[in-house]
Structures are given as structure tokens and as C-alpha cells.
Design goal:
Layout (H helix, E strand, L loop, with lengths): L1 H8 L15 H7 L4 H19 L8 H28 L3 H22 L17 H4 L2 H33 L6 H22 L7 E8 L4 H4 L5 H18 L4 E3 L13 H11 L5 E9 L7 E9 L5 E6 L33 E3 L4 E7 L6 H9 L4 E6 L9 H16 L3 E5 L5 E3 L5 E2 L13 E8 L9 H5 L3 H25 L1
Parallel strand pairs: 1-2, 2-3, 7-8, 8-9
Antiparallel strand pairs: 1-12, 3-4, 4-5, 6-7, 9-10, 10-11
Helix pairs in contact: 1-3, 2-7, 3-4, 4-5, 4-15, 5-7, 5-8, 5-15, 7-8, 7-13, 12-13
Amino acid sequence: MVAGVLLGLAFPPVEWGALAFVAFVPLLLIVRGEGAGSAFRLGWLAGVAQWLGTVFWLHHVSWFAWLGMSCYCALYTGLFALIAARLWRTGQLGRFLLPPVLAVAWGGLEWIRGTFCTGFAWLPLAASQHENLPLLQLASWGGSYLVSALIMWLNGALAVTLHEYRLAGAERRRPANTALLLALLVLALVWVQGLRALRAPQPTGPLLKVALVQPGIPQMEKWTPEAVETIYERLRNLTHAALAADKPDLVIWPETAVPDDIRTSTNSYDVVLGLVTNGAPILLGSTDTEHRDLERPRYFNSTFLFATNGVIAGNYDKQHLVAFGEYIPPLLGWLTPIEDSFTPGTNSRVFRLEYPAAGFSTLICFEDTVAEVARGFVRAGAQVLVNMSNDAWFDPSSASRQHMLHSVLRAVENRVPVLRSCNTGVSCCIDRFGRVYDTATDAQGRASGPAFRNTLVSLPPPDAPQTFYTRHGDWFGPGAAGIAGLLALAALWRRKKTETD
């Protein structure tokens, strides 16, 4: 369980990112010599210890969801421990190859967790390095899972080295720590290459002036009739203040910013119309309803771009829905209070501004945790990604900070800036290399209260070369997942064979 506690401390709210490089060492040492069942249990317990702490904020929605998600995510740590124990016991790889193979296995298991049954890609190991920008640049080649694998490589090399030195104490000899030297060499090369990328001059396109609006409406008030006028008034006041401070090219409101469907609500439309005619288009989040003859209505979680004449210039429907929050999985409706599911969108919409000429796309809520969705937008022509979210479901907690780290990963993977506008949370700007700046704070300096922030975004030019990751996608994750699956099956087969012998 020590490994789980150490790993949990690498993420918000503590954020001791360096612990990620050593957190798994105790687990790797303890599972050496253990059987498959025992190793799996030890890994699962370590995973439970980590996830109970990192996703404690889920209890704001459901205590069952907190416990269930923690136990589920811990399964992947259990499988990793099982694989590690099997590789330790066979000794076929030797000390030199064991760490990189463990690294590949971990990267593959993270990819499976992020994709299986729509996935839960929350907090890969790479997210712990959001301030270690030189190392994080590796994501532009192989995505976040390749960065996670590199972190695990060092964990494995340290475990192998400590084990050998422990044996050396008994045998009075000095072992060669080639495994650790190789891991450190690879880590240094990646870090130096990332530093070069950070310091290299970059082609720049137009500068985009943006106003991020953060209403700060508590979740318990967001959908009550009594709060409607408060929501309208806050949106008006914050937007007027942003327009007066520095007239932006675009104003961004968060996910479901208005309290009803913007297409059919006269009151919400009048609020927007009274603001866009000041000269700045408004991008906002709203629910949307589609009625069809003889069919039940279909509901969407959407974003709309309003031009300065009040006309809807485009809209996007969220593609990757959250289970139990936005849709009900078959036969599991008893686990959630929601009565109707949203319908997923099907198009990677790229919105266009005429001046300055810019293309951008929106990631609604947890869509910024899904790397493939963000990549699809950039491949379609988006020069900037906009994450519109409502983290008020989990306030007060570290969920907002954890959520923001995924936008950092998406920025680095695709080398495009990311803008975040949240109802409550971390509304900020992230540049192409993962630097976070211009965070919106209220009068008391809090990042979760009502606030606005005017920021300047340097866009990549339209003809800027796409990253290797943007062009080729998660080439590392699926391959690593296949290797992890084969190793897990081999470990289970060996256990069954041992039991039958």
C-alpha cells in the first residue's frame, strides 16, 4: 500500500511529482518471489490506496461511485503487479531488459484503462509531470502513455538495482547497475531533447484576444428556478467587465452556462443577444433538444458560437459522454438518478473566426481526457482547443486541478494552445508546450469563484507542421496493450499450470 500512497501524493492536491519516479519501487520489490494471486492482491491493494485518495471527490456524486471506481482502477495496478512478479520469477529477461518491458506493460495497461468500455483515462502517470515540461514534450511523439512508460522504466530500474545491491550485501560483491544507467541515460536524452524543443524558435500565427468567463454557480443552485436570474446577471456582469477591460476577439462561457436550451429559450437568447452586439462573438455551452415525429426527443450537451448579429454561426454536440452522468449504460439505470441519456455527437466541428482568421474546436467537460477526440479536432484544422467544463459537481475538492492537467497533456501532444472556461474550476490558458498562465481568480484570489480573465493566445500558423502524435495517433498505447495482455495471460497460464502439476 506504500506504493499507492506515494503515487497519490504525486497528484493534486499535494503534487509532489518527483514521487512518481520512485512510487512503484516498494511494490516491485515486494512482489518478487510472490505467486500470481498474491502479487495481484498486493498490487490491487496498492491501487486502492492510491485511487481512494485521488478520486475522493467522487463522493460528492455518490459514495458508491467513489468506492467502485477506486476498486476498478486498482485492477490495473493488480495486473501490473502480477506481470512484474512473473517476470521477476522467470528471470528470462535479466536485469537489463526487465525495466523497459515493465514500462511497456504499464503504458499498455494505462491505455486499456483509458479506452475499455468508453474508458476512464483519469490521471495517467504522465499527468504528474505537468511542471516537468522538458520531459513532457515526449508526448508530442507518442502521447501521454509513452511518457508514463518512461516514468515506470526508472521505477523498474531502481527496483532491480536495489535488489541487486541487497544481494551484494550478503555476497560481498559490487554489482554493475547497468539497468539504472540505461534508464537514466534515456531519461536524460528525452529531457535534453525536450529542453531543446522548448527553447527553439517557433513559427507563430495570429494573436487571439480571448475573455474567459467563470460564473461560479454552485451545482445545487445551477438548475433551480430561483437561481435563473442570478445566473443571467452574473453572465452579464462578468462579460461586460471583460469587454470593458480589453475588447476581445472571442468571449467564452463554460459548459451549460445558460440554465436551459439556448435554441428555444427566449430569455437566454435575449441575454446573449444583448452582449454579442457589443462586437465580440460568444462561445457558450448549453443543452440542446431535438424533436422528431413519433420519436422520443433526443438531448445533446452542446456548444454554440453566436456571431455579433445574434445568429448561431455553428454548434458542436459532445461526442464522448460520461457514463452515469450523461448516459445510462444498459441494465444499470438503478445506479444513477438521471432519467434520460444524452445522445453523442458524431462530428469533429471546427469553428471559424473571420478576424483574426482562426480555427478552434471545443472539448466539453471530460472530453479533454480523451486524447483521440482532441487529436481529431487538430487533424481537422483546429489551431486552438477550448475546454468548456463544469467542475462544480465536485467542489470543493482537488478534482478541478486534476482535470486541468489533462488539458496540459492535450496541448503538448498536438502542439496547440488550450483555453479552459469553467463554471467553477481552473479557467486558464495553456500554451503549445504545456505552460499554464492567466488563471482566472475572484476578488479573494480563489480559482473557483466568479471571475473573468482576458488573455492573449499565440496561435500556430495554419501551415504549421503537425506533431508526430497528431499525424499517427496512439501508436504506442495499443501495441503496449497487446504486450501487456500477452504477459498477463502468460502469468495466469503459468499459475494454472503450476496448480495442476
